Each structure stands twice: as C-alpha cells, then as structure tokens.
Amino acid sequence: MLIIGLDDTDMLNTRGTGHLARTIADALSDTYPLLGVTRHQLLLHPDIPCTKKNSCAAIHLDAPADAAAHVLDTVRTLMLADFVPGSDPGLCVAANVAPAVTAFGRRAQREIVTRASARDVATACDLPLLGLGGDESGIIGALSAVGLAVGGEDGRYVQVGRIRELGGLLPVTALLHAGIAGVQTMDGQPVSEGLVNADRLRPARRGGRPIAVVEWQDDHWQPLKLD
C-alpha cells in the first residue's frame, strides 16, 4: 500500500484540502485501486496559520512500493495545476513508514512543530517530502498525514467505498455493503441491527479500517464524527 499525505493550507473561501485529496484520489483510481481518503486533525493554535480546522489528508492506494516515484510525480503535477495563490502546499508519498513518522504526526496534534523538524524526520526515514509553493508549511501536514494514517487509529474517512452515495436511514447491512468494515458503539460494542443515519457518513479509521462509531438517538443509530 502507498500512503499519500498532503496539506494544501488553502485560502479561506476556496476548496479545502479534503476536496483536493478526493479529486486527486479519483484521478489516481484510474490506475490504482483506491482504499480510501482520510482526514486527520492537527493542533489548533493561534500561532498556527490555517483557514478553518488545520487538518491534513491521506490517500490510501493499493499500489506497490515501486510505484511510489510515479505516484509522487503524478500527484505533484495535479497539485501544481490546482495551486491556489497564497497557499503553502506540501506532499509526501510513502510505502514503508517508520514509527518516527507516526510519532511526528502525534506531536503535530499536541504541540507546534516546525518545517525543519518535518524535513529532519523525512530525511532520517528516507521519505520524499515536497513543498510546492508559498512558505512550504504544508510539509508539516503532509508528513503528519502519512504517519497518522499508517498508525491506523486516527482520523476519519472522507471517502471509502460508496459512502458518499448513501443517505437517509439505512440498515447496518447497507453500510457494510457500501464499504464500511463495521459498526460499533463508543465502547466498542458491535452493532448489527437497527437503522443508521447515513447522511454525510464519515467512519473513523480504527484498526486500519473504516468503522462507523454510533450512538442511539430516538429510534435510530446516529454516527459520530471522530478525529
């Protein structure tokens, strides 16, 4: 599997990093099977410039390690073609990810980290990390996205299977057929019966899989949006 981490640090009132990631994922899926796109939340702090939520995104591809260079070139071209003046995009593509990269992503969720530290980690772990414009601060989110996605216990899917086609109250089986691996409560109890509100369903990434975490509300299960 290849993980593509990106952070566009887009401008207010323009398309966000998640939208860009889904657009690129759609283009890549013509060549490689798409396993999903996940959103990962980083630290919100007054000293960290961001438009809204300071999130980054990871694209999960079913592709061999030797495709990494080709995928990197393809995504770089797509990001540069969609560059928003004033943004500071970053890109990272990885097949084998060291624990230090996940640790960096966790740090970026707790404290302010620098571009220099991102480059140091990427160099030590032999990962390509590219700044594609502006002050290149997007490399922090790009590297973090790779580490957090590989960790398998962070973020939520903004695209996987057919979840974006779902809506309304649906049985659990419909969610499973759409590409969700399981439905469970916050305390980990599996849910197999009842109706689930599938509007804007964004399953969590847990155990490296898309899991819809739900709570009972009135007469149906209501999904939770977890970071």
Architecture overview:
By secondary structure, this protein is of the alpha+beta class. It folds into two domains: 2-157, Alpha-Beta Plaits, CATH 3.30.70; 161-223, no CATH class. Helices cover 30% and strands 26% of the residues. It contains six helices and twelve strands. The protein has helices at residues 17-28, 68-81, 99-110, 115-124, 138-151, 172-177, and strands at 2-7, 34-41, 55-61, 90-94, 129-131, 156-159, 169-171, 182-185, 195-197, 204-206, 209-217, 220-223. It has a six-stranded antiparallel β-sheet. Strands 8, 10, 11 and 12 form a four-stranded mixed β-sheet that branches. The longest helix is centred in the N-terminal third of the chain and has 14 residues, at 68-81. The chain is globular and about 50 Å long.
